[in-house]
């Protein structure tokens, strides 16, 4: 079993990665929850069919009472309505602060479950059981939980750390390649901001990751990804400093995601596009080596995405930027690169610079435009 620690004083916890760990969830829960207590398993309909039985069996064997509550799939359902419905169900079933919430699923399930846990009765313990590559390497780690608002993604939320994160890489075998590409985008982000050698390993083994040919290598890539995120979160839980580096590719990525309609581009696909844009701006604004930047953009542009960038309305994307939650004192913070592994936060990237970059991005993906 691979273990990574997130060290945040009394809110510290372990990320545990092991093949088939879902079959021993009950044993892991026993380290912080008394036998006989109630456990709410929050899960999507699809994941319930695939994995809930083994998790429930493990919990019952370990002495827990388990209820299953479904969370609707899709970004459109990641909202306060879904949260309120879960409040109703948990209160009706006599859940209190001695109970545990288990989030079994991808990022949407984890975000909604974590927000419910953070806010009901001013806080219930919860555990993340991520089942997508994106949620395993990113959203399950670090305590960001929340839901969308009509004006933007993840605008309503909290920082609320789980008691543990249990990662089973074998569940990735049920995912479509597009879902793996989605997680791959976030994996590459860690390399860009922290570890050039890791970035190259991930780029060199792209097909191995997409085809899950070598589960030991895939497990190690997941471990290194969460290790990088854990190091950053341990240093800066509330995103006042270095944690902002984790937003590399996300500022423009979120704008693209919203302007094209949530769900058309998967989150990780939008981040890949956002990183291309950030790399180009880094060359122009910070003097990132043009050869390195061009090589990185070429590698990213070869990743097959599941939606057409030409659908993006640039005016709508610019408007979405103006509602970005990373705005501070009226200025939009961009994470750019001085070099691979050396990020910097700048706040003087203008809307016009973004507009020019988005025009170039469309051309880049359509006709292979040069820098």
List keywords for this structure.
371 residues; alpha/beta; Rossmann fold; Dehydroquinate synthase-like, alpha domain; 2 domains; seven-stranded mixed beta sheet; two-stranded antiparallel sheet; 14 helices; 47% helix; 18% strand
If you had to describe this structure to a student in words, what would you say it looks like?
- With 371 residues, the chain is α/β, with parallel strands linked by helices.
- It has two domains: 2-173, Rossmann fold; 177-367, Up-down Bundle (Dehydroquinate synthase-like, alpha domain), CATH 1.20.1090.10.
- Helix content is 47%, strand content 18%.
- It has helices spanning 25-29, 45-61, 80-92, 107-119, 133-139, 177-194, 196-204, 206-211, 215-235, 250-259, 267-285, 290-301, 314-321, 351-367; strands spanning 2-6, 13-17, 38-43, 65-70, 100-105, 126-130, 144-149, 152-159, 164-167, 327-328, 331-332, 334-339, 342-346.
- The strands form four sheets. It has a seven-stranded mixed sheet with strand order 1-2-9-6-5-3-4, sandwiched between helices. It has a two-stranded antiparallel sheet with strand order 7-8.
- The radius of gyration is 20 Å and the shape is globular.
- The termini are far apart.
> What string gives the helices and strands in order?
EEHEHEHEHEHEEEHHHHHHHHEEEEH
Which architecture of the largest domain per CATH? Up-down Bundle
CATH homologous superfamily placement of the largest domain: Dehydroquinate synthase-like - alpha domain
* Tally of helical runs: 14
State the major sheet. 7 strands, mixed
Question: What's the number of extended β-strand segments?
Answer: 13
Which bin fits the share of residues in helices? Answer: 40-55%
Distance between the termini: 44 Å
The average pLDDT value, as a whole number, equals: 94
Radius of gyration: 20 Å
Briefly note the structural class of the backbone.
Answer: alpha/beta
Q: What is the strand content?
A: 15-25%
């Amino acid at each position: 079993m691979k273990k990574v620690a997130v060290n945040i004083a009394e809110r510290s916890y372990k990320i545990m990665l092991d093949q088939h760990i879902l079959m021993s969830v009950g044993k892991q829960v026993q380290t912080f929850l008394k036998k006989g207590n109630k456990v709410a398993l929050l899960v999507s309909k699809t994941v319930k069919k695939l994995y809930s039985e083994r998790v429930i069996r493990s919990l019952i064997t370990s002495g827990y009472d388990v209820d299953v509550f479904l969370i609707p799939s899709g970004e459109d359902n990641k909202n306060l309505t879904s949260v309120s419905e879960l409040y109703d169900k948990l209160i009706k079933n006599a859940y209190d602060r001695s109970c545990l919430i288990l989030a079994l699923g991808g990022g949407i399930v984890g975000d909604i479950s974590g927000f419910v846990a953070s806010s009901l009765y001013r806080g219930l313990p919860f555990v993340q059981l991520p089942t997508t590559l994106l949620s395993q390497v990113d959203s399950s780690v670090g305590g960001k939980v929340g839901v969308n608002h009509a004006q933007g993604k993840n605008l309503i939320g909290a920082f609320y750390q789980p008691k543990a994160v249990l990662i089973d890489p074998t569940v990735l075998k049920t995912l479509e390649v597009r879902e793996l590409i989605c997680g791959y985008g976030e994996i590459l982000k860690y390399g860009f901001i922290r570890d050039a050698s890791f970035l190259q390993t991930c780029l060199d083994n792209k097909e191995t990751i997409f085809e899950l040919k070598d589960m030991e290598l895939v497990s190690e890539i997941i471990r290194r990804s969460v290790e990088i995120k854990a190091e950053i979160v341990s240093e800066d839980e509330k995103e006042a400093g270095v944690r902002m580096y984790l937003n590399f590719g996300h500022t423009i990525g979120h704008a693209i995601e919203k302007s094209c309609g949530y769900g058309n581009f998967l989150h990780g696909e939008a981040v890949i596009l956002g990183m291309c844009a950030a790399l180009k701006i880094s060359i122009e604004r910070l003097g990132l080596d043009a050869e390195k930047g061009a090589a990185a953009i070429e590698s990213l542009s070869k990743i097959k995405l599941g939606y057409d960038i030409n659908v993006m309305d640039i005016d709508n994307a610019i408007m979405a930027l103006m509602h970005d939650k990373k705005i501070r004192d009226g200025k939009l913070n961009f994470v750019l690169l001085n070099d691979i592994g050396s990020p910097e936060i700048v706040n003087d990237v203008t809307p016009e610079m973004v507009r020019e970059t988005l025009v170039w991005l469309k051309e880049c993906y359509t006709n292979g435009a040069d820098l």
